[in-house]
Every structure is written in structure tokens, then in C-alpha cells.
From TrEMBL:
Official protein name in the record: YhfH family protein
InterPro entries, alphabetized: YhfH-like
Pfam families from the UniProt entry: YhfH
Top-level taxon in the UniProt lineage: Bacteria
Length: 42
């Protein structure tokens, strides 16, 4: 069963920003939905 969970997370597509559509460079299982640019991180 653990192998199935690991495979699930390995096979997730890259997360996209909900504002600009750019790929978010963080873990796929993270709850954030915006990229650093749209969050105004500097």
C-alpha cells in the first residue's frame, strides 16, 4: 500500500499558478496555489 502512495506522488503533474499559469517550483503536495511572482515575494 505504501508503494502505491509513493507512486501517486511521484506521478503528479507539475503544479501551475492559478493566476499566471506558470509552473510553481515547490513540492506538488503543497497547498499553495500561486507562484512567487504572483505572491510578490522578493
Amino acid at each position: 500500500m505504501i508503494e502505491n502512495a509513493v507512486e501517486f506522488f511521484k506521478n503528479l503533474p507539475p503544479k501551475k499558478c492559478t493566476e499566471c499559469g506558470e509552473t510553481v517550483s515547490e513540492q506538488h503536495e503543497c497547498y499553495g496555489t500561486k507562484c512567487d511572482k504572483c505572491l510578490d515575494f522578493k
